[in-house]
Structures are given as C-alpha cells and as structure tokens.
Amino acid sequence: MNLKPKTTHLDGRLPSKILLVIKLAAVLVFAFFNQASAHIYSQVVTLHEKKASVQKILKSIEKQTGYHFLYDKQDVAQASQIDIEAVAQPLETVLDRCFQDQQLTYKIFETTIVVKKKEEVKTVQAVTIQGTVSDVKGPLPGVTVRLKGTDVATVTDAAGKYRLSAPNNNGTLVFSFVGYNTQEIALNNRTLINVVLSESPKALSEVVVVGYGTQRRVDLTGSVGSVSARQLQERPQTNLEQELAGKIPGVNVSSNSGEPGGDTKIRIRGYSSINTNTDPLYVVDGIVWTSGGNAINPNDIATIDVLKDASSTAIYGTRGANGVILITTKRGSKNRPSTVSYDSYVSVSHMAKELPVLNAQQFLAVEDQSYANIKKYDPVGWAAGKYVNDDPKVIRTALIGKLFDANLNPLYDVDWQKATTRTAYSQNHNLSFTGGSENINYGLFLNYADDEGIILNSYLKRYNARLTLDNTIKPWLKVGATLNYNSQQQRLGSYGTGGNNIPRMLIEMIPIVPITYPDGTYGKRTDYPNMEGGDNPVAQAREIQQLAQLRLFSGNGYANINILKGLEFRSVIGVTTAANYYPSSQTGLVGGPTASQTYSSASINENNNTFWQWQNYFTYSNTFNKIHSLNVVVGTERQNYQQLSFGTSTRNLSDNFYQFYNLGAGSIPGLPASNYTAWQMQSFYGRVNYGYRDKYLLTVTGRTDGSSRFGTNVKYGFFPSAALAWRVSQEDFLKDNKTISDFKLRLSYGLTGNSEIGQYRSLANINTTNYVFGGQQSIGTTQTSIGNPDLQWEKTAEYDLGASFIIATGDNFYPAGVASEYDPSWQSSFENVYNQHPLYDDWYVVLGNHDYKTNPDAQVAYSRLSARWHMPARYYSMVKNIKG
Predict the structure, then answer these.
(1) Among candidates 677, 690, 712, which has minimal Cα distance to 629?
(2) In DSSP terms, which residues pair with 553 in a beta bridge?
(3) Where are the beta strands (DSSP E) in 475-520?
(4) Which of 60, 80, 406, 446 sits 20 to 30 Å CA-CA off 88?
C-alpha cells in the first residue's frame, strides 16, 4: 500500500488557520510512523524553470525528494513566479532561493514541509519623554518618574532632569518623592513635561526613626530632630558632621582643625557629662556604629533622626546620655526597575580670611619701638641687664648677607599664611545600582572622595562600597543583610602637641626669615637672635608626614517574623572590624613637637578592634475601637568590644629616604608597646506608647544595662523615663483651625547613664615602670590604682517641657507651612564616677526653628554648680614620709 499523500490544496471554505492546524496535526502523526524510513528520501534537487509558479516548483520538488508540502492555496497563488536553475543542489538551498523574494517562508518537519506567509513585524516607534522636576526651591534630584500602568520608570538626576522611552505619548506620568505630594500628568501627545512638586507637611513628618522602631511624628512625646532626604541633597558634604551643622536645633557641630577628616565634635544640648566622653551614640540602620561619622558616606544616608531628650534616649540606657544620632541608609525599593545613578561634584576651598599680622618692616619697627620704650621707661632695668642688652642694629649688622642687606633692610618678607595654605580642590563621585521586584530589592552604592586640605600636603581620600539586600521569603518572614567596606587615608595638616605646630606657626613665625635659604636649609625663628624657637610651617608641611589609615568592614543581617496580627519578632546581628594604621616620620631638617628635637624619627602605631552586637525584641502594635492605640517594645541586647594596639618607633634614620618604611634604619630604636582591652554589655529594655483618641499620649521606657566596666557590686543600672503629650490641635476648639495645626504640649522626665569611663577603672591596675638595680636600669611592675567594687554609673536626670506646632499660610514664601518648636529642658548630672568636679546643669530653650529663608535659632543657658561625691568609707590612702 502506498501511504504517500498527494499535495493538498485548501479551497478556503473553512478558516485557513483552522485547516492548517488540522492538516499539520495529521501530517505530524504520519511523520511519526514513518521516522524509520525518512532517511531514504533524496536530499538534492535539480530544477530548470522559467517563470514557473510556486505550486509547480513544489510539485517538482515532491517528485524528486519524496517530501510532501502543506500550504494554503491562497498564500501560494499570490506569490510571484520563479526563475531558477539548480543542478543537484541541497533541498534547503533550493527552497531558500525560491522564497528569497517572496512573502513566504517554510519549515521542515521530518518528511513534511510547511509553507506559510511570513509574519508581519510591526515596528513600534518609541517616544522619548523628558523634562525637569523641581519644587519652589529648585531642581529635585531622586524623584521617581513612572509611566502609569507599566514598568517603565526612571529617576531624576542631580539637576532634576529625567528622560524615559514610552510606547506612545498618550499615557500618564506619575511623579513621586518622599515628603512631596504625588502628582499624575497626562501626556496628551506631549514629549516635554516639566513638573513642580509641592511639599506635603504630613508626609514630611509622618514617620521618624526612634530606638528599636519607628513612630509617627504626631505620636512623639520626646524631642526628636530630623534631617530629611531633601535637606541632605541641598548641600553635598564629605562627612556626616557637616551634614548636621546648622540643621537641627540643639545640635552643635564644631571642628578643632578644619582639615579634611579632622576631629569634629557634636554636642547635643551641651555637655551632659562631667569628665567622661560626651560624644553622641551613632546608630546606623539599627546597629550601633563605633567608628565615628567620618567612616560613613554622606551620600548613602536617606534620613537622620536625632534623639535629644532623656525620654527618647532612655531606651539606649548608658550609651544614650549624650544623645543618639539615628541614621537610615538608602536601599533598593520594591517593584522598581533596575536603575543606575551617578552623581559627582567638585568644590574649591581656600582660607576664608587671613589674620592680620605684621610684615617685615612693621615687625622691625615694633621691635625698635620696644627697645626705645624700655630705655625710656625702665633705664635702671636696662642698665642692670634686665632686658636683652644687644642693640637691634648690632644684631642686624651681624646678619648682613643672611637676613639683611648693607643698609639693614630685610632681605625677606614672607606672608606665612599664604605660603603655607593653598586653594584646595575636592571631588566626590557616587555610583549606585538599585532595583527590586515584588519580594526582593537590592542596592549597590559606590563612592570615591578626594578632599584636599587648605594646608599644604594635607588630604583625605576615601573609598566606600555598600551592598544591601531585602527578601520577603514568606508573608510572615522577611530577611535582609547589609555589607559595608570603607578604606580611607588621611594626611594630617597640623602636627605637634606643643608650640611647634603648623596652626600656631602660621601666626607666630616672624616675616624676616625665609622659607629656605639659597643653600636649601629651612629658616627658623631662632635664626634671628633672642626669638623663641620654632620651625617655619612650610618646612613642617613638607618634612613631617603623619598619616591615618582606616580599613573597615561591617556587616549585619536581620530577620522579621510576623507571629500574629500586630505582633512581630525581630532579630538583628551586626559585626564591625576596623584596622587603624598610624605611620609617621620626620626628617632631621625640622624639629619635632618641641623645637629642641632636631633628629629624624619614624613610628608606626596600629590598633585593630572588633565590635559585635545581637538584638532580639518583640513589637506589638494595635488600635482598639479607634480610641486606644498601643505600641509595646520588649527586648534584650548583648554587645562585645575588643581592641589590640601595638606600636614602635626609632630615631636617627641613616637616610630620610626610608621614612617609616624601614624602622631598622634608625640607630636608636624605641621600646615596642602593645595593649589589649575589652568590654561587654548585657541589656534588657522595654517601651510602652499609649494614645487616647490621638490626643493624649503617654510613653514609659525602661532599660537595665550591665557592664563589665563597673564594680562587682554595681554591675547593673536601671534607667527609666516617662513622657506625656497633649495634642491640643485635636481638641474640638482647635480642630478646625486652618492656621495652626498639630499643636502639641510635651512634658517628660528621664534618667540616663554614661559608661564611657575606660575598661578597668573598677579593678586594681598594675603597669610597667623603670627602676635602677645594680647600677643598671631595669623594667618592673607596680600597682598604679586601687580597685573599687562600688564604682558606678554616672547618671543624668533631665526634665523637658516642650511645645510644637505648624502654622499653615497661603503666602508663596511659606508654601509648606512654618514648623516651630519651643523646648526648654533642665539637666542635672550626679553620682560622678571618679573625679570631683563641679556638676553641670543646663537650661535650654529653642526660640524657633522655622522652615523659611531666615532661621532664627537662639539658646539661653543657665548653669549651676553643685557636686555629689560617692566613695565608700572603707577606702583610704596614706602617705608616710620616711626620713633618712
């Protein structure tokens, strides 16, 4: 039986696509049963045709090869005629030639060839939509621009500009940004859309970060200051401390050096400690940060919240006495397309204003006048040798050719402030990759900063990388992690601990001495007789090298478990390791910290520290009958810190070339030193927030801390706080007032502690000392302090009375309203831990913090001195003089 089917033509009475599917199915079944014999068909074709129809060509191929064709008769009938000459050519080659200029294509299924029309490729011309997003203050960077109902989205750049491709220009763009009202704009065949977003006071103050959670700002009973994302972007800075300067009432930021990465002090409501560390506590994404603000990339920060009063800081117990700075960093967002963002800036800085000093002629004139005054007003003292007896002209004559010409005019007139400072250029580059789906979001943030100092050769270079990941595994389980790496190197611009340092010599160096003499040696103050010693500041900047290098790695992970409705458990663990490396060297061409040091020296000091913490806490939040709101936090935390330090030094290097890279080149090695310290802390804490009808608010907080730093009898301390708030604006008599909104009165009391006293003050300490034995110097040990098992916490009690409100206006100058805060407080520190000094009380008032062009902000301080000293009676000391 011959099973080979004939070529089949469709007459079009049934829909062609349905018939095609039926026939194709039949042919495929047939091909399945004939697989075994498929290889016998011929694979080469010979054709000699002129203006032949496609149907004729297909029949000829069927006869030669044994293949059969399946096609729609109408499709083939519409094809052009074919001219072809082919001798023993492969089947596919012949088919390609036949269909080359046709609207037909083919596909081979075993022994069946299906011929069909080519699919029409519809080209959609994308439309580019662009524009600028701004507010009343200027361009807005970071605004999300999304084509409504699609995944097409982008963000505005540093200039507030955006660009995206849309299928057409008939859709709707959605503009959204934290703190601003979301706005939708229909394209209506437009390709240029500029938008001005309006601030939303409710959105700006909706949620703030507090200890171990977040709260609506309207529910706060404590004093919390915030810096929004918008404020952080207004004035780019290279460090966190500069970001805070002038932005939050009661937060004072000051720099001791002005150099890049220099020591910056932050004080929240003045000094809350008598004689211990007064730096605030840094908390980054819920994890205590021990490496200071310089190790944080400001561009990574999303918001900053500062806890200022005891009611808000008591949840941090002993580590919150100086205030708490809570930093929330940027992360990826859910349901956002992958986005690459780059921004950079370059800044120029210089010495703002030189201090007025004497030039060379003025200096000599003042000296002459001084001698004249002495002779006139104290001739007896002058004659008795009470003063320098050499006449200035005699001194200058001896220095002709070195500092003076033959007419005793100065050869040099140096402006040391100009000579030692420069115009400094700084650059900062940030690159980020963010995105997310329904369950996962991610972010990679990279930063490079190169910050020159205005003092010669001073600089700070920093590299930072941060990776974030959040994953909602189940509706009840969410996990996440953050990895951060920071590498920075700083060359200091001020040296010395005595009078021989750059900042002092900038002012005190005499102008008649040169930077260098013709022979290359540096000028010194002592080159002019009877002057105090000291190196010129240019020489110090060139010949003294002091570096500070940091390598920091930190990582943390969390898990959130929703146990029941309103009840959540959170566990967070974080680890930070930091290696601080301090190499320094100086040539013999300049002095050291004192002018008498004229030898070369080098040293290397290093400390490595590891800090880890583990938090576990439950949060319960619920509202009952729309009347009572309750939020409860209960948890425990453990912290551990370890540090190993070591260093060594040498003097009289055989060549200045070695600097600190070869300490063996020094002929006088110093004694190596090392030190190990560690401390631990165990804590239990709780907080209850209660609200009645969103009008009357109560917060009660308590924390118990146990620290290894304190005596065995007082390891643990309890630190409570309580606060009340009345939202007057929710009362009926003020609820409908359109001028004043969110008017609140606050009253709070809190007790916080300070544990920053050093690791081993409660223990008896021994240390090494030198003594002479047998005519030789030997090293031994001696007790340097007695133990005190009753050494306890320094505590700070604070009473706070505050008022806050928002004044809404229709004036364009105040588009979002004016927020004001009146917040006096009284602090008292007592139970000092180791030194008897006057205690500090503080009366603090914020007269205004207004969100408009002028920012009146005043502080009134009242201090009262009192002391309270605690020392158990059984401790005493006795000094006995032994005669003979």
Answers:
(1) 690
(2) 485, 577
(3) 477-491
(4) 80
* Upper half-sphere CA count for residue 592 (Cβ side, 13 Å): 14
Could you give the dihedral angle defined by the CA atoms of residues 495, 501, 502 and 507, in that order, rounded to the nearest 10 degrees? 160
Question: H-type helices in 472-567, by residue range?
Answer: 502-508, 537-543
CA–CA separation, 82 vs 89, rounded Å? 17
3 state DSSP class of 315: helix
Q: Which two tokens stand for residue 203?
A: 């959105």
Q: Choose the weakest-confidence range: 5-19, 55-69, 196-210, 658-672.
A: 5-19
Tokens for 133, please give them. 């997003």
Structure tokens at 321: 């006495």
Is-contact 619 655, C-beta < 8 A?
no
Non-local (6+) Cβ contacts of 874 within 8 A are none
The fraction of the chain above a pLDDT of 90, given in percent, is 30
Q: How far apart are CA 9 and CA 19, in angstroms?
A: 10
Q: Across residues 452-478, what is the average pLDDT?
A: 93
Q: Dump the DSSP string for 556-599.
A: EEEEEEEEETTEEEEEEEEEEEEEEEEEEEE-TTS--SSTT--S
Of 609, 584, 588, 605, the residue nearest 597 (C-alpha):
588
Contact assessment for residue 374 and residue 385, using Cβ atoms and an 8 Å cutoff = no
- In the numeric block, which tokens belong to residue 518? 């013709």
275 class by beta-carbon count within 10 Å (0-12 exposed, 13-18 middle, 19+ buried)? middle
Q: Which residue shows structure tokens 């662009």?
A: 130
| pLDDT mean over 727-756 | 82
Contact 821, 844 (CB under 8 A): no
- Burial letters 200-217, b for 16+ CB under 10 A, else e: bbeebbeebbbbbbebeb
SS (H, E, C) 362-381: HHHHHHHHHHHHHHHHCHHH
**Which among 68, 81, 15 has a CA at the least distance from the CA of 38?**
68
pLDDT of residue 659: 86
Q: Which residues contact 164 (CB under 8 A, 6 or more apart)?
A: 128, 129, 130, 145, 147, 152, 153, 154
Contacts with 602 (C-beta within 8 Å, 6 or more apart), sequence order: 583, 584, 585, 586, 649, 650, 653, 658, 659, 660, 663, 666
Mean pLDDT on 525-536 = 86
Q: Please report the domains of the chain, with CATH numbers, ordered by start residue.
A: 16-117 (3.55.50.30), 127-198 (2.60.40.4130), 360-412 (no CATH)
439 CB neighbour count, 10 Å cutoff: 14
Strand-strand pairing, 324-329 and 281-284: parallel
DSSP state of 356: P
Residue 818: partners with Cβ closer than 8 Å, 6 or more residues away: 806, 807, 809, 850, 851, 852
The answer to whether the CB of 480 falls within 8 A of the CB of 558 is yes
Both tokens assigned to 366 = 């003042």
Q: Judge contact between 703 and 719, C-beta under 8 A.
A: yes
- Average pLDDT, rounded, for the chain: 79
